[in-house]
Structures are given as structure tokens and as C-alpha cells.
Amino acid sequence: MTNSEKLFERGCRVLPGGVNSPVRAFRAVGGTPRFIVKGLGSHILDADGLEYIDYVGSWGPMILGHSHPDILKAVYDRMVCGLSFGAPTGLEVEMAEKMVSMLPGVEMVRMVNSGTEAVMSAVRLARGATGRDKIIKFEGCYHGHSDAMLVGAGSGALTQGEPDSKGVTKGAAQDTLMAQYNDLASVERLLEANDGAVAAVIVEPVAANMGVVPPEDGFLQGLRTLCDRHGALLIYDEVITGFRLAAGGAQEYFGVQADLVTYGKIIGGGMPVGAYAGSRALMEQVAPTGPVYQAGTLSGNPVAMAAGLAQLNIITDHPEIYTVMETSASYIANHLRASAEKHGIAMQVNQIGSLLCPYFTETPVNCYAAAKKSDTKRYAAYFNGMLKRGIYLAPSQFEAMFVSSVHTQNDLACTVQAAEETLSEMA
Length: 427
Ligand code: PMP
Prior knowledge:
By secondary structure, the chain is α/β, with parallel strands linked by helices. Helix content is 38%, strand content 15%. The chain has two domains: 3-67 and 320-426, Aspartate Aminotransferase, domain 1 (Alpha-Beta Complex); 69-317, Aspartate Aminotransferase, domain 2 (3-Layer(aba) Sandwich). The protein has 14 helices and 14 strands. Helix 6 (184-193) packs parallel to helix 7, helix 11 runs parallel beside helix 14 (409-426) and helix 13 (376-388) packs across helix 14. Bound molecules: 4'-deoxy-4'-aminopyridoxal-5'-phosphate. It catalyses: (S)-4-amino-5-oxopentanoate = 5-aminolevulinate.
């Protein structure tokens, strides 16, 4: 028995599925999750001493790689002054100033502890500010596990939401309307059918929880126009794209601004952090200046702020990382396509910036229905082939591959070689 197997067996006795977040259990790909003991740069080491090139990167935050010395130093330096006070610290002000300076249209920020919390709070703010109840989301977009956002499969584009999880009441789900990503007409129909009742349209500007699906030309601009016409707010969930597509996130990358934006992951540098942000007029609706209540004992935690600030400072000092990551990601994407073609494997590789995803299907993937056509058994075979060759990918088809700024030429060469061997084996 390997050490990971032993830990998993013990974990399954005391943690549901042996894990604290479902995808980590490897259920979609089979086998035993690797228990990680250490990360350095683009590599991670498991409990059996096996080393992997990591393309999960904690699902996004490790954009500068693991254990970046400046970030670790910021954490140590801060930690010795105390871990939490429940009173404001200067670091929170510095973090908000930093974010405001980097993000288009953002005048104020509220820090929270996760992406889930950020979205839940932004949705509440949108409802409070507009006095409307309904929210339009897109099938296949993930916005954390708050009740109103756990609505997905099972409902047609024009019907009212049905809960996607047991424990979510019909009441919590009934105000969530479902549209189709990259399909403006589906949004327009919902806005017209619910005229004056829609508080916000929430979207992942690049859908990165159904694999990776970039917005088609005009999609985000079309959402902006439709929201303005119907008096609804546009919320970008930038928990994945924030500070990753560009220093200013998707708003900068696509040049289309939202009213409220949610962030997570990257602004914590690996510590648990989220944030929601927007114009002063909207953000001052939040308590204590406004009537929309939202609070948090550990929000703006000084150690998390120190880690995140160190990371954002490095990002702003090194704007070249975005070109580096894009070049690395497109190198992998091109080699995957070439290997798939060589071995006669039906594969679509979507890539934008440092995000990419191979789908095992013949048809291009531009929406949830198309993503669902991917042969997930083939993805599992691909995942396991890569894992045994030392490449750590997302253990599910419907996730992104995250390239960091510290994946080396050698990492990339090993990765495409492993993919070539795996796809040859699968052919
Ligand atoms: N929104 C998006 C776009 C996400 O990808 C995620 C998590 N992957 C969340 C929200 C929820 O964030 P968290 O897991 O930090 O609660």
C-alpha cells in the first residue's frame, strides 16, 4: 500500500469521501488521490516521494508557482505579529488600494474568505441595490456552492431553476434563471419574460468550470448591452480569470466592464481569500454604509492579505508573465492537437491565456451542451496516463489546466512528451 493509499483509507473514515472538496477524491478518473506534502515552483511532491509537474496550481492561485520566496517571506514576517485581530489592519487598506489601482472600473472592494462567499455577497448586493429578486446564470458556469448558485442541470433555458443539490430548497432556487453560454438570445428571452424582475446576470467571462470555454466575439458586449437595456447589473465572476487573463482580469482582457466583479484564489496567493468589488455607489450599499448586510470574522485576515499583496506586487512588477504563460499554454495546446491528430483521436483543445482544456469530442466546444459531449472515460484514461508519467492534471474533464509563469521549457517538453505517449497508448 502506498502512503497516499493509507492516508486515503484513514481519510475516508473521518472525512466524507476522504476529502474536503469533492473533485479531489478522484472519483471522475478513478484511483487514489495523491496526498501532497510539498510544492516548489511548478512541481509538487506526494506522500510517497513522487514528483509531478503541477497544472492544477491549487485551482489557480499559484500563478507564480509554489513556495515563491517573496510570498513566503511576507507570510513569515506578518505571522510573527499575530494571526488575527478582528480589527482593521493597514494591510487591508493597502490590498484594497492595490486592487483599485489594477482593476478597471473598480472603486471599492470588500474582502471575504472564498469565491463562494464573494459571489453570494455580490448577488445579495445586486438584489439589494436593484430591489429585484431574479438572477440569470449560465448552464455549466460554477459560482461556488451558495444555495442560489447551485442550480444547473435539469432545467431548460427558459424555465425556472431546479436545485442541483439536495438540501437546496425550491424557494432558494426559484429566482435563479438559466441561460446558455455564448447564446445571447437565451438571455434576451429571459430578460423579456421577466421584465423588471432581474437583478443581475452573472457570468464567468471565460467559462472555466465546464473545461475552458472562451466567450465568442460580441458575447460579453452583448450581455453588457442587454443588462443596460433591462436595468440589470452585470456581474463577472472572475474567481478564475481575475489577475490571470491579465493584471486587470477579464475586464481588461476583453475591454468590457461589469458592474460588480468577484475575485478569489489569486488575491490570496494560496491563502483563503475572496473579494467582491465595484463602483463606489454600489459598494457603499454594503454595511456599515448601506442596508445590504455582509460580515466576516476572518475577512481581511492580515496573513492572507500579506500573502496576496506580495503576489499582486510581483504581478504588477512583472507584466511579462502574461505573455510567458500564454506562450506556454499555446505550446501545450498545439502539441496536444498535433499528437491527437497523429493518433487519430477526436480531440478539441480550447485555450485562452494560461487556461486550456482538451475535450475528447469531434465537435468544437463553445457551450455546456457541446462540452458535455466529451467522452469522460477517455479523459480519465488521458488523466491516468499523464499521472503515471509525472504530470498532475485536474482530476475531472470539466476543469481547466492552469499554466503558471514558472513552468520551464523542460516542464513543457516533458508534458507534451507524456501527452504524446499517453495518446499513442489510447489510440
Ligand atoms: N466562482 C468560480 C468561477 C470558481 O471557479 C470557483 C471555484 N473554483 C468559485 C466561484 C468558488 O470559489 P471557492 O471554491 O473559493 O469558494
